[in-house]
DNA sequence: TGACAGGTTAATGTATACAACCTAGCGTCC
DNA sequence: GGACGCTAGGTTGTATACATTAACCTGTCA
């Protein structure tokens, strides 16, 4: 996130992808030298990337040293989405309580209009995804609090909580256009609640919005079990214990 | 957190202390070599510690490279406490909704009893702080979700959100024993709400509990302005802009 | 006198070498 | 035969050397 096109960035993206693709056995230890050779870089940036992935919850530290791939379940994804709704709900509530500068509300309207365009007629899926990301980034800003913004953005970018983990296959939903439209209705309702200074409603709407993502995910995994390995974050999901 | 008595740990604790004590000018760049010499270790563990402190929000990365001390305000501390209440509230709500194993509830009762003892008669402040930490650690576990537990613990340990940032001078409160007793009443009410499976009430109580910490902080800074430099997290607080 | 170009310095990012630790396997002793 | 200890191998944690890049200063030219 910090550096562009550095070895660290390569290590971070490469290792994260490998983990989410299920390239490693859960609970398996990750030897640093072998990994660094596999990724074509030295141990220094690799270790930095591993530290970051530990923060993200994809890896966990071993007491004796080193780290291993974390075991996570479908319920962990559900919980991550719930948490995202809670934190975004807080951003929305505080924004409503404290008020939002004109300029930011105008930006919000612009983003909503962009998403409307993406949904009009034939759905422009890429444009929707882009607009959706912009909306949630802005939502994190609306409370005017660096702390809230940081944490909301952070949790939204957690691999397990990231909408992009399944959004890219949302075309498999029974009526995916209807789902996106429903999400956009919630987007607009949130902004309206914030403008109306109704904190509780804004918070509830944000939570409801996250729950929609959860329902979509549950539907996808119920009807398309074969999809799991393709969906980052679901590759390691299993029903076994510990 | 991971390693004990390693150079990394020394770097993390040392640098964090220096920042919170206000040893650096806000927005000042931190040169790695000078810092590593000052802390008596090499750049490798120092850089790891700096990465961690960036995650915690005490430092921020500079586009061109390196990092500087973050500027934070009193409002940032308020927001961090608010966020802590929200996430702990979620842990409490989910625990109530999903139910908690007998063994964990028994542990909770044990901790509550320990805090009661600490408050009986002459207040044993250290024992209270220890029991309070145990309570909040357990609260993070009650939902039975590794994700919730991770994030609740993480946010609680953020320097700006940490109760220990001002708890150690809580003896300056007008009637600090009453304040601790009120907190303990809230502790017990939370556990009872969870046992009664009342999620909304449990969540509201956790938020209320965080708000008590906020009120204490506000009182302290209002009546003892000279205390600020001694209170970690307040050293860098200022009313100037950007 | 001001602005631009070139060089020099110092900083970070990266690689690698070194050291301490844990683990496992084998041999010996009880 | 089993258990304890020692040694060897490998892995991580740390230090340092190297390279690359950005900033700053200086000198010259317009």
UniProtKB/TrEMBL annotation, chains A, B:
Which keywords annotate this record? DNA-binding, Transcription, Transcription regulation
Q: Which GO terms describe its molecular function?
A: DNA binding; DNA-binding transcription factor activity
Query: What SMART domains does the annotation carry?
Result: FCD, HTH_GNTR
Q: Which Gene3D superfamilies does the record cross-reference, listed alphabetically? A: GntR ligand-binding domain-like, Winged helix-like DNA-binding domain superfamily/Winged helix DNA-binding domain
UniProt cross-references to InterPro entries, sorted A to Z: GntR_C, TF_FadR/GntR_C, Tscrpt_reg_HTH_GntR, WH-like_DNA-bd_sf, WH_DNA-bd_sf
Q: Which residues form the HTH gntR-type domain?
A: 5-72
Reading the lineage from the top rank, the first entry is Bacteria
| CDD domains linked | WHTH_GntR (cd07377)
Q: Keyword GTP-binding on this protein?
A: no
Keyword Transcription regulation, does the record have it?
yes
Recorded hits in PANTHER family, A to Z, give:
TRANSCRIPTIONAL REGULATOR, GNTR FAMILY (PTHR43537), TRANSCRIPTIONAL REGULATORY PROTEIN (PTHR43537:SF49)
Q: What is this protein called?
A: GntR family transcriptional regulator
């Amino acid at each position: 996130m910090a550096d562009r096109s550095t070895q660290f960035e390569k290590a971070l993206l490469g290792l994260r992808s490998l983990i989410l693709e299920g390239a490693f056995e859960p609970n398996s230890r990750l030897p640093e030298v072998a990994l660094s050779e596999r990724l074509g870089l030295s141990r220094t940036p690799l270790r930095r990337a591993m530290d970051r992935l530990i923060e993200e919850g994809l890896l966990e530290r071993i007491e004796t040293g080193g780290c291993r791939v974390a075991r996570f379940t479908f319920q962990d994804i559900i919980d991550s989405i719930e948490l995202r709704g809670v934190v975004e709900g807080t951003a929305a509530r505080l924004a409503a309580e404290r008020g939002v500068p004109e300029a930011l509300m105008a930006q919000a309207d612009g983003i909503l209009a962009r998403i409307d365009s993406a949904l009009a007629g034939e759905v422009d899926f890429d444009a929707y995804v882009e607009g959706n990301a912009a909306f949630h980034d802005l939502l994190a800003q609306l409370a005017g609090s660096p702390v809230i913004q940081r944490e909301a953005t952070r949790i939204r970018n957690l691999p397990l909580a990231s909408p992009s983990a399944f959004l890219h296959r949302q075309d498999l939903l029974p009526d995916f256009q209807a789902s996106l439209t429903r999400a956009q209705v919630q987007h607009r309702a949130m902004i309206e609640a914030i403008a109306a200074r109704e904190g509780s409603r804004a918070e509830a709407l944000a939570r409801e919005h996250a729950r929609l993502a959860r329902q979509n995910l549950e539907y996808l995994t119920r009807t398309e079990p074969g999809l799991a390995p393709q969906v980052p974050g679901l590759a390691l999901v299993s029903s076994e214990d510990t």
